[in-house]
Design goal:
Elements (H helix, E strand, L loop, with lengths): L7 H6 L9 H9 L1 E6 L4 E3 L7 E7 L2 E6 L5 E7 L4 E2 L1 H6 L6 E4 L3 E7 H10 L1 H27 L2 H11 L4 E4 L2 E5 L4 H7 L4 H13 L4 E3 L2 E4 L2 H6 L3
Antiparallel strand pairs: 1-8, 2-7, 3-6, 3-8, 4-5, 4-7, 9-10, 10-12, 11-12
Helix pairs in contact: 4-5, 7-8
C-alpha cells in the first residue's frame, strides 16, 4: 500500500464542500483532519457505530452496504477519489446505518464533526454548500431508486457502462470502460444478482454491443448501446 504524503489543506481546497473556503478556514479544518491509510477489505465503520465525522477518499475505493443476518449484502454506494461519505448521519447525530469497507488499498481524510459544526456557525456560505452537497447526494439516491424500480436489469447495466465509470476513455465513437470493482459488487450496486449481471454482459457481447476483456469492456458504438436502453 502506498503511503504518499499529501498536504491536507491543498486536497481539501479541491473538494467541492470546501472549495470556496479561505486559507484560514482550511487550516482550521486541516488541524482536525486525520489521514487514514486502509488496506483492501478494512472496515472503516459498521452499522450502529457512532458518526463522529465523515470521510473523503484521496485514493482507493470504498463501498457502503447493508448486510442481513444471513450474510446477504446490498451495496448502496461506491465512493472513489474526491468523494465523501458519512455527512448525513453526522449532522443527524445518529449512528451509521451502513457499513463502510475498502475495496482496494486506500487513503482517506477523516474530518471531525466538531470542526465542521464550528465552521457552519462561522460561515453561512459553508452552510449552503453543505446543504447543496447533501441535496445532490439525495438526488442521486432518488435517481438510483427510480432506476431500480422502473428500469430493467439490462437498462441498469447499460446505464452503468455508459456513465458509471470514472476510468473511461473515449476512442472515436467507441468507449473503453474499466470496471472499478468486482462484478459481484457492481451487480449488488445495480440490484441484480451476479449471475444475472454476467448473463447481461454475455448477451450484450453476443449482440456485438460490447467486448468484454476481464474488467475492461469496450463499447464499439456508444450511440447504438444507448439506444438499447430506451
Amino acid at each position: 500500500m502506498l503511503n504518499v504524503p499529501i498536504k491536507v489543506q491543498t486536497f481539501l481546497a479541491n473538494v467541492p464542500l470546501f472549495r470556496e473556503l479561505g486559507s484560514e478556514e482550511l487550516d482550521r479544518i486541516a488541524l482536525n483532519t486525520q489521514q487514514v491509510h486502509a488496506e483492501k477489505g478494512d472496515i472503516l465503520f459498521r452499522r450502529g457505530d457512532p458518526a463522529l465525522g465523515f470521510y473523503i477518499v484521496v485514493y482507493g475505493q470504498v463501498k457502503l452496504a447493508f448486510s442481513s443476518p444471513r450474510g446477504d449484502e446490498k451495496v448502496v454506494d461506491l465512493n472513489g477519489p474526491g468523494q465523501s461519505f458519512g455527512e448525513a448521519v453526522m449532522f443527524m447525530e445518529r449512528p451509521h446505518v451502513v457499513t463502510a469497507q475498502t475495496l482496494s488499498d486506500s487513503m482517506l481524510l477523516y474530518v471531525g464533526r466538531e470542526v465542521v459544526f464550528e465552521e457552519l456557525e462561522r460561515d453561512p456560505k459553508f452552510v449552503r454548500r453543505m446543504i447543496a452537497g447533501l441535496s445532490s447526494r439525495l438526488h442521486r439516491l432518488m435517481s438510483d431508486l427510480e432506476s431500480d424500480s422502473l428500469h430493467s436489469g439490462t437498462q441498469r447495466v447499460i446505464g452503468y457502462l455508459l456513465c458509471g465509470s470514472e476510468e473511461s476513455s473515449s476512442t472515436g465513437s467507441g468507449l473503453e470502460v474499466t470496471l472499478t470493482a468486482t462484478k459481484g459488487v457492481i451487480a449488488s450496486r445495480l440490484s441484480v444478482t451476479q449471475e444475472h449481471f454476467s448473463r447481461i454482459l454475455h448477451d450484450l457481447s453476443a449482440r456485438g454491443l460490447i467486448e468484454v476483456h476481464g474488467r475492461s469492456i469496450y463499447i464499439p458504438d456508444v450511440a447504438k448501446l444507448r439506444a438499447c436502453s430506451n
